[in-house]
Amino acid sequence: MRIGTDTSKFPGAAENGAAWTLREIAALGLEGAFFRSPYELSPTLDPGEMRDAVALGHDLGLYVEVGTAKVNPFAAPEAPRVRDLGDGDYLRGLERLIRACAGAGVTELWTATANYQFRLPGLRACDRFRDDVAWAGQLAATAKVLDRLAPLLRDLGVHLNLETHEEITSFEAVRLVEDAGPDAFGITFDTANVFVRAEDPVAAAARVGPYVRQSHVRDVAPMFTDDGVGRFLAPCGQGVIDWPALLAHLPAEATLSIEGIVGGRAEMPLFLHDPLWQEGHPDLTVAELAEVLRLTRGYEDRAAAGEAPGLAALRAPCGPGDSLAFITQSAAHLRAVLSTRSADLEVTV
């Protein structure tokens, strides 16, 4: 497994461009870069600029992965640039993004279903709980988009990998990929987002493992709050995830892109006591909810003993130094886990 980072959370990336970012990532000893959008490789989607950026990454020994856009048509109004690219047709714009990435030699592409509106309070900050369109309707519309994109993906020989984003469960992501076809679609496994849907990250890894082609890795620091449970982000190894157990479920060729923090630790509530929240999770099992609560109690005990940041510290603003430390500390822990696992395998053999 190769360890890289998400450039959208890499300090200085937005200001300095792709070439600078790739060189900085390589200088840190990381092995890959995930760009959230092809516009990060070229603001005009210039084929030559995109190819040059990808070639530079490869010359530096890095894997290069790129995102496209959301595949839930109800999220389309929040991405006017994609619609503009398609001359008024969002789907055509998405297809052009996919072609641009494939033309640059990138075959593993990220996508997701919806958004989280941090500016809004309460349950409806998550698009899963929108009033204007039910989540089941959003999933059905997403499935139709995937079916429309499948022939293009197969023709280009690329995979569009659906993230376990904060609004979708791993159960739903697996069903979408299985129905649309794993020959054209895969999963980008976000290790911290599944916790927002009250899933045990290790159990979720086992579910999505057969379809994982990319991953966004970060740890979870959960605390009990007035809303129920608050999920905060922590560097890998400093939260509650059992990394050896989780990584054991992922394919050996999986890329581990550390998704860091910007400005804060991205608190997202689990409204466990809200009937609407409960009804909105038909796949949730008692066993996984119990594990989420056990992990939260365990983290709270560590925080109370001064062994981990407490609620006030988790809610405090973060600066660029914190963002970079998040990435380097995560990389160090993941390397240690992978090194130990390799040594164990050698002893077994």
From TrEMBL:
- What GO annotations for molecular function exist for this entry? isomerase activity
Per the database record, which ranges form the Xylose isomerase-like TIM barrel domain? 23-250
Q: Does the keyword Lipoprotein apply?
A: no
Answer yes or no on keyword Isomerase: yes
Task: Show the InterPro entries listed in the entry.
Answer: IolE/XylAMocC-like, Xyl_isomerase-like_sf, Xyl_isomerase-like_TIM-brl
> Which Pfam families does the record match to this protein?
AP_endonuc_2
Return the Gene3D superfamilies for the record: Divalent-metal-dependent TIM barrel enzymes (3.20.20.150)
Q: Which UniProt keywords apply?
A: Isomerase
Q: What is this protein called?
A: Sugar phosphate isomerase/epimerase
Species of origin: Actinocorallia herbida
